[in-house]
Amino acid sequence: MEEPKISVVMSVYNDQKYLHEAIESILKQTYSNYEFIIINDASTDLSREIILSYKDSRIISLDNNINIGLTISLNKCLEIAYGKYIARMDSDDISLPERLEKQIIFLENNKDYILVGTWNEVIDKNSNILDKLIHPTDHEEILKTLMYTNCISHGSVMFRNICATKYNEDYIYSQDYDLWTTLILKGKIANIPEFLYMYRDHVDSISNIKRAIQVDNAERIIKKYYQNLYKEEYNNTLIFGWINYHSAPDITDSFIVKIIKNKLLLEKIKKSIKSECYLKIRSNAIFDAFRKSRKICKLFGLKKTIKWLFIILIQTFYRKIRIMLHALRK
């Protein structure tokens, strides 16, 4: 029997509704030389029974006696992963048939690359396509983008199974963002410019219910990434100048409060808005972004005579429209 070249790793917790689709999307891949490591993180629904119902010899089933979370569960999978490459898969998402084949070809042909993701289609609970996420594809662009946001979809990645590669267990959430900012210092990263993965956006997804924790983690990760990349202390202006507009208004308010309390920092940001034009805002809708942007400019003391110019970026991230606010000089 041929030794598996890819280890697909997936953690499952109470995903019975979408689990069949996720497993079958891997089993129907055009590339077949892989092992599929599935760890059941003490699910209380029928997830375990669904996993065990599959008799494919490539599936390796693990069970946690208690719920230990995604980060530690994935590390348990990595400890036994035999493949030259690790491919991630989320238990409520779908991989398109040619995903593994195209990713392994890319990594085999580009030895200086350590990880590759893909573009994604966003689907709802019924697998209807809601949106398309076009992430940066070039290594240099990804290197810069990671300074303010995660531009690599966790479930879509394949990376080299190099010694000691594991997720940082200090992060219950955003463990992927931390890993990307670590791996990119060891090798190049790319996204294949094709829609090879379907990310499911539903009310129970981690991205929706743990938003506040993810934002706090992102602040820590960005600071560490900056220090590792530039070998110098992190400039807080970059963090507080970037205001992350997710679906929770209280997150936005907490960032604004931090800015207002720091008079010196406030002056720096006001100057940056007027000259450097780097304030980036993510929102669910253009109208919402416009309303919140005006709120910030009012707090920053910007005059009504300042002209507004909104450039809508085609690239989106987890259904949030990314907008760059250009507050032009008078």
> What is the H-and-E element order?
EHEHEHEEHEEHEHEHHHHHEHEE
- Described by the principal axes of the CA atoms, the overall outline is globular
Q: Which superfamily, in CATH terms, is the homologous superfamily of the largest domain?
A: Spore Coat Polysaccharide Biosynthesis Protein SpsA, Chain A
CATH architecture of the largest domain: Alpha-Beta Complex
Average pLDDT value? 77
**Helix segment tally:** 12
Regions with little confidence, pLDDT below 50 for 5+ residues = 237-256, 272-293, 302-330
Look at the helices and sheets and give the structural class: alpha/beta
Overall description:
There is one protein chain. It is built from 12 helices and 12 strands. By secondary structure, the chain is of the alpha/beta class. Strands 1, 2, 3, 4, 5, 6, 7, 8 and 9 form a 9-stranded mixed beta sheet that branches. The longest helix is centred in the last third of the chain and has 20 residues. The chain is globular. The C terminus is likely disordered.
What's the quick description here?
The chain contains 12 helices and 12 strands. The protein is α/β, with parallel strands linked by helices. It has 2 domains: 206 residues, Spore Coat Polysaccharide Biosynthesis Protein SpsA, Chain A (Alpha-Beta Complex), CATH 3.90.550; 93 residues, no CATH class.
